[in-house]
């Protein structure tokens, strides 16, 4: 080979981004006891968080039947218009209160369901955009909780 052959050969630009996206590099980096321990802890943390989110949603759907239940379930997170509506419903005569309460509870449940689904969906779509594959367990776990929340009624 002469020096002109070397000059004609295309040079590969090795950038930090290419190295970090290299499957060979990732496999090697993830195949250590310390990274496996860290992965296990991270998995435990996000699964505990997902379990907590589902538990909150499930509690809201199964145990919320009155405005008092809403206040208890949302523990002081009610502000502004929603708190005003609850206060107004509480002041109604019993026959009107029941109907208004039912409508309000249905509305809160629907809004909270949409809130949970949107937040979880936005999060999982963000990590997928960042390069986490759809077949990753993290993404599967998020999608499973989203489906479980959608099934609540």
Give the topology, please.
Blueprint: H1 3-8, H2 16-21, H3 23-30, H4 33-63, H5 67-73, H6 80-91, H7 94-129, H8 137-151
Helix pairs in contact: 4-7, 4-8, 6-7, 7-8
Brief write-up:
This protein has eight helices and no strands. It is an all-alpha fold.
Distance between the termini: 74 Å
Q: Tell me about the biggest sheet?
A: none
Query: What is the percentage of strand-forming residues?
Result: under 5%
Task: Give helix % range.
Answer: over 70%
Low-confidence stretches: none
Radius of gyration: 26 Å
Give a description of the structure:
This protein has 153 residues and is an all-alpha fold. The chain contains 8 helices and no strands. It starts with a helix and ends with a helix.
Key features of this structure:
153 residues; mainly alpha
């Amino acid at each position: 080979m002469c020096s002109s052959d070397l000059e004609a050969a295309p040079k590969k630009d090795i950038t930090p981004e290419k190295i970090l996206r290299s499957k060979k590099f990732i496999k090697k980096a993830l195949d250590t006891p310390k990274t496996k321990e860290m992965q296990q802890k991270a998995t435990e943390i996000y699964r505990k968080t997902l379990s907590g989110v589902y538990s909150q949603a499930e509690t809201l759907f199964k145990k919320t039947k009155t405005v008092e239940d809403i206040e208890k379930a949302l523990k002081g997170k009610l502000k502004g218009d929603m708190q005003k509506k609850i206060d107004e419903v509480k002041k109604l005569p019993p026959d009107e209160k029941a109907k208004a309460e039912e409508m309000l509870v249905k509305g809160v449940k629907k809004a909270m369901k949409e809130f949970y689904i949107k937040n979880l969906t936005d999060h999982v779509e963000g990590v997928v955009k960042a390069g986490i594959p759809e077949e990753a367990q993290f993404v599967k776990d998020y999608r499973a909780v989203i489906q479980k929340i959608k099934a609540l009624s």
